[in-house]
Amino acid sequence: IAEKFAMDAEIHDAKKRMKVLLMVSRFGHCLNDLLYRWKIGALPIDIVGVVSNHFDYQKVVVNHDIPFHHIKVTKDNKPQAEAQLLELVEQTGTELVVLAR
């Protein structure tokens, strides 16, 4: 199937916990849901951090003992903010970025 659609595909061991970086903006309902599912063991992932362009959910994240990262994004600094995000992905060994929205 991957060849047919010119896709790259990989098969991973489902027992290996993937390193995940969550991104959140001002809407926290998805973040709260993901954190709850992670906390009860329904999401077998390692959350390496949460990154946001706002501080709205910093306390929630820190209370879960997860590193919180703020990256300010404006129309003038978008390329620099994206570079910061990519650097964070590398530093944390992130394997999957999830937009909690």
TrEMBL record:
Transmembrane segments: none annotated. It is an enzyme of class 3 (hydrolase). One of its GO terms (molecular function) is formyltetrahydrofolate deformylase activity. Its EC number is 3.5.1.10. It comes from the Bacteria. The keyword Aminoacyl-tRNA synthetase does not apply. Coiled coil: none annotated. The keyword Thylakoid does not apply. This is Formyltetrahydrofolate deformylase. It comes from Rhizobium tropici. The gene is purU.
